[in-house]
Amino acid sequence: MSTVAAYAAPAAKAPLERTTIERRPVGEFDVLIEIKYAGICHSDIHQVREGWGESIFPMVPGHEIAGVVAEVGPGVTRYAVGDRVGIGCFVDSCRECEYCRQGLEQYCVNGSTSTYNGLDKNGEPTYGGYSTHIVADEKYVLRIPDGIALDVAAPLLCAGITTYSPLRHWNAGPGKKVAILGMGGLGHMGVKIAHALGAEVSVLSQSLRKKDDGLRLGADHYYATSDPKTFEELAGTFDLIISTVSEPLEFDAYLSLLSVRAGYQQRRPLPVRHRHRHALRE
Length: 282
Ligand SMILES: [Zn+2]
Ligand SMILES: [Zn+2]
Fold this sequence. Notes:
The chain is of the alpha/beta class. It is built from 10 helices and 13 strands. It has helices spanning 42-48, 98-101, 150-153, 159-169, 185-196, 211-216, 228-233, 251-255, 261-265, 270-281, and strands at residues 2-8, 17-23, 30-38, 65-72, 84-87, 90-92, 113-114, 133-137, 142-143, 177-181, 200-205, 221-224, 240-243. The strands form 4 sheets. Strands 8-3-4-5-9 form a 5-stranded antiparallel sheet. Strands 12-11-10-13 form a 4-stranded parallel sheet. One zinc ion (ZN) is lined by residues 41, 43, 63, 158.
């Protein structure tokens, strides 16, 4: 056990206070990370305020953690002292269910262990990234490439993966028209990542208030959803729409902006194959 400094909420809705917490000893497959940065995610605020149900207090939030490995257990093979690493929303899972076996631990049917506001396998509460150090199994630690500074890497561990995952899953890239709905913490991340993947990116935002930011971050187009003409103009346009809006939406209106083309583009172009067959026969 080691005592480390942290910021903790002592009770629901209470402000964070400086305190100390105990981190477990570095086990066989554990790494000790010296935390350099932790992002602030809105779900940190939800959980401190018990917006999602009963929480565990004191609570040390933070699940966008970036830092440097300070110590490794004897069984650790993936990381060495000095490596730049991160931790996201969970620090363990059952490791046995079909999803864990496929590397999709976020869908663990037995419940993955949250980075904070959770209980580990010994029933001890987990504490997050608003602290100086964390101990975690190497399997739940991610490597941060040298090209990304640790301060900007931290928000990628939650906001980044939340938007990258659907963009990647639905093949956002060159030739794809992607709409990002909302220009907040998640939305601006979606714009940057979709742009970096090579897609043609449109922001659909309530107003044009953040248009300059959107274009600066990589959007090609920016539309106000408060303007009914937007829905007429963009009917049948997009291959993919990523919604980052937490308010209830009129989904029908947005579904009408999707193109039916998207599903067909996934298939092989038949005429080309026919041509090949003819060519072979001839
Ligand atoms: Zn988050
Ligand atoms: Zn599992």
